[in-house]
Specification:
Outer membrane efflux proteins (OEP), 8 strands, about 65% helix, 2 domains
Length: about 450
């Protein structure tokens, strides 16, 4: 008893930690989790922060800049100059060798620069806002793509789970039929072909079941990857395929009007137009003069030894205030060519914006059509499944009573299995088609 109690105390923390690693999600919870933890979404958030930093980096180039410089020189062998000796009372026509200055020197200076006018700077600051808008729209598009990927991956997991359950039921029914048929054959009341036909069907269903179990594991790993979880994480889905499909049937969505300004693809095409317009302004700004001002203060010190840091060392100060004006005069028509190219790029961007508007409208109509078709296919597949189940049951009864052949029974069973998969796929299609429509409408 004591040993058992100790074992339980040792294993209890392990069981607790194992339970903590199991995460359950509804579809909406999975979407919210992925928007925070999906790898692409995380990097899109970083890109947005990077764009904000880049905006300030551009603005800062036009604000006061202060730089400092320190220079130290040690003339290991000083240059010698010759001066007429008569300057020192010597003989005319002779020269005296003289060394000017001291062997070591140090200088230190600080310079303040301020940009007064630069057309390219003004355009650059405007461009940072466009780039920040583009980064925000890119983040929004990434989130929409992540949402769509989660919905598809979540639906695929539910599809795989349902496929496993259906295949297990089919296999169980076939094993029962095969067992009964074998007994009839062994008693001399049946034929061997009936056993063989059922054996073929059972082998096919068994292989499909094995594949369905593998796909269940793979689709779950794919969902974990989209969620930003380790692929081996234990994830539990709290929704089933049928209920989720019913929630996704919303014919009122078909009456929603498209506000194209909310569509992220349109907003990104508009960003491209703004960028091309600013590039044209930048090309024109290169013909404008630039004006910068600066003020400098520094000091120089000289010595025969390195004692520049001592308090008694003498330093000689200097200061400069200046203005730089740069006026473009002639570029051999280079600036004109650059401006014309920028105009062409802007016109192309305008055309692309018009094309994007038409494409979005077409995508909306196609998405509505696909959504309607998915709902209709779902209803048809549901009815077909009921018919296929009825046909299979009748053929099974007929086969048991000797009124139908094993080949006819196999045909009915194969038709049922195909209809089952079509029904499951129709539910997933409803879920995915609605998501595509919502993405275009940006809902």
């Amino acid at each position: 008893m004591r040993t058992t109690l100790i074992s339980l105390l040792v294993l209890l923390p392990w069981f607790s930690s194992a339970q903590d690693t199991i995460t359950s999600f509804s579809l909406d919870e999975a979407i919210q989790y992925a928007l925070e933890h999906n790898y692409s979404s995380i990097n899109a958030s970083r890109d947005l922060v990077d764009a904000q930093k880049q905006k300030w980096e551009t603005i800062a180039t036009g604000l006061p800049q202060i730089s400092g410089a320190v220079s130290y020189q040690n003339q290991l062998k000083q240059p010698v100059s010759q001066i007429p000796a008569e300057f020192f009372g010597g003989e005319p026509g002779t020269y005296q060798e003289v060394v000017f200055g001291q062997a070591q020197s140090m200088s230190a200076s600080a310079t303040l620069t301020q940009q007064i006018f630069d057309g390219s700077y003004i355009v650059g600051v405007q461009a940072t806002k466009t780039f920040l808008d583009y980064s925000q729209n890119s983040k929004e598009k990434t989130d929409l793509d992540v949402r769509k990927s989660v919905v598809e991956a979540y639906g695929n997991v539910l599809l795989a789970k349902e496929s496993v359950l259906i295949s297990e039921r089919n296999k169980e029914t076939l094993e029962k039929n095969l067992f009964e048929t074998k007994r009839i054959y062994e008693n001399g009341l049946g034929d061997e072909e009936s056993v063989d036909q059922l054996q073929i069907t059972l082998s096919t269903v068994d292989n499909y079941l094995k594949n369905a179990r593998r796909m269940e594991e793979i689709t779950l790993q794919m969902l974990n990857l989209v969620l930003g979880l380790p692929i081996e994480a234990e994830t539990v889905l709290t929704e089933n395929l049928d209920d989720l499909t019913q929630k996704k049937i919303d014919l009122g969505l078909l009456d929603e009007e498209l506000n194209i300004e909310n569509n992220v693809d349109y907003k990104m095409a508009l960003n491209l137009n703004e960028q091309r317009f600013l590039e044209l302004k930048l090309a024109k700004s290169r013909a404008l003069p630039t004006l910068n001002a600066f003020v400098n203060y520094g000091g120089n010190s000289f010595s025969d030894s390195f004692n520049f840091l001592s308090s008694g060392q003498q330093w000689f100060g200097s200061s400069i205030l200046g203005v730089d004006l740069n006026i473009p005069i002639f570029s051999s028509l280079g600036r004109s060519a650059s401006t014309q190219r920028a105009k062409i790029a802007l016109e192309k961007a305008k055309t692309q914006l018009t094309e994007a508007q038409e494409q979005i409208r077409l995508q909306l109509e196609r998405a509505k059509s696909d959504y309607i078709l998915a709902i209709e296919d779902y209803g048809t597949s549901k009815d077909n499944l009921e018919l296929a189940e009825r046909i299979e049951r009748k053929n099974e009864i007929k086969y048991t009573e000797g009124l139908a052949t094993s080949f006819e029974l196999r045909q009915a069973q194969t038709q049922l299995y195909t209809t089952q998969q079509e029904y499951l796929q129709s539910m997933v299609d409803v879920i995915n088609r609605k998501t595509e429509l919502e993405t275009i409408l940006n809902q």
